[in-house]
Please model this.
Amino acid sequence: LHRPHTSLEGLTPNEFATRSRMDHNVNSASL
Model:
């Protein structure tokens, strides 16, 4: 399981999903 360096504690599921999508978009754009 990939875990970011920052703690996800305190994030709501919606915030987590949004951050995950942003991370995937950045990763795809950097390819």
